[in-house]
Design brief:
7-stranded mixed β-sheet; 6-stranded parallel β-sheet; 10 helices; alpha/beta; Quinone Oxidoreductase, Chain A, domain 1; about 25% helix
């Protein structure tokens, strides 16, 4: 089978390897499509440290090619591969608490840029026919957004500040609107905010010297009743969620990337805010599917830019590292 491996930064090599023998209880899944983003590009460029060699690709869909001795899902079933999986249990061995308890495919575990993987039933989720491959590739983002909104526990009609207008920030705003809260989307880049406004986010504010006054005007002087900081939306001040939030409210720090996060906690302490961290949302994947099927999440504004696996390196190279990159463009690699 074909496997693409990063042997070093910017050194993605296609190799032919024997297809592994199936393990008991494992399904053979043919990878069909991957979604790659700025995180994958940073790994490719060597800006994010990983252990080489590494098979990249964190978000993938596929088709069960052989169910082996497992019988829950028949051959031909379309599935979403899970990006986040529990690390192996070390049993009685001494635990290294510096290690992650959740492995991330394509970063701390080999990813999906290969023809086949063998996975157990707990490492994939079957997809209904009404959810296309392109939409399914965003399910981890929707699940993460759902986890953030649940942790925030916003009340009906409450103004909530969302700092970061990238893909994840836009999905969080959609869910807040669905739950009848009122998001105030804040970002340092006008292009991101323009995309959000076109998608139905009513309150969008530029990160500038007028921000606090504008939030106060929208909220009638009360400030936000909660806030979410999206770690993947680079270019935003990390202190903003604390600044624009009212006293004794909830702050959710949301995202799978934490590199370079330095926060001034003065407002956190003086306002007696409660802070929650949401990292992967893997427990909300079924909810995410239901949100797409029910129409609660609208993905029509997102455009797929599809490349073949043969030009994976070029696709990763072309993904911009700039914070103002096109929010609506999805970079997809097709393996079939």
């Amino acid at each position: 089978m074909n496997v693409w491996k990063l042997n070093a930064a910017k050194s993605l090599v296609k190799t032919e390897e024997p297809t592994p023998e199936p393990e008991a209880g494992k399904y053979k899944v043919r990878i069909t499509k991957l979604l790659v983003n700025g995180v994958d590009a940073a790994i490719y460029r060597g800006e994010t440290k990983v252990k080489y060699p590494l098979v990249p690709g964190r978000y993938a869909v596929g088709i069960i090619a052989d169910e082996g001795d497992a019988s829950l899902y028949p051959k031909g079933t379309r599935v979403l591969l899970h990006t986040y999986v529990p690390a192996p249990d070390t049993g009685t061995a001494k635990k290294d608490f510096s290690e992650d308890e959740v492995l991330v495919c394509g970063r701390t575990r080999n990813g999906f840029l290969r023809d086949f993987v063998f996975v157990g039933k707990d490492e994939m989720t079957p997809l209904p026919d009404s959810v296309s491959d392109e939409r399914a590739l965003l399910l981890h983002h929707i699940a993460l957004a759902k986890s953030a909104v649940d942790a925030l526990d916003a009340q009906k009609g409450e103004h909530v500040a969302v700092v970061g207008a990238d893909l994840l920030g836009n999905l969080i705003c959609q869910l807040l609107i669905y739950e009848q809260a009122s998001p105030i989307l804040i970002d340092a880049y006008p292009e991101r905010l323009e995309f959000a406004r076109a998608g139905g986010v009513y309150y969008t504010l530029l990160q500038d010297e007028t921000l606090l006054g504008n939030v106060a005007e929208i909220t009638g002087g009360r400030l936000a009743g909660g806030a979410v900081f999206v770690t993947s939306a680079r270019g935003n001040e990390t202190s903003l969620p604390f600044t624009v939030c009212a006293r004794e409210k909830r702050i959710v720090l949301c995202g799978c990337e934490t590199a370079g996060l330095n926060m001034n906690l003065e407002a956190l302490l003086t306002k007696e805010l409660s802070v929650f961290g949401v990292h992967d949302g893997r427990d909300c994947l079924e909810n995410a599917i239901n949100l797409i099927v029910s129409g609660a999440i609208d993905l029509s504004a997102y455009r797929a830019n599809v490349s073949s696996a043969e030009v994976s390196a070029k696709a990763l190279e072309n993904i911009s590292s700039e914070p103002d990159q096109d929010v609506g463009e999805l970079h997809i690699i097709s393996l079939i």
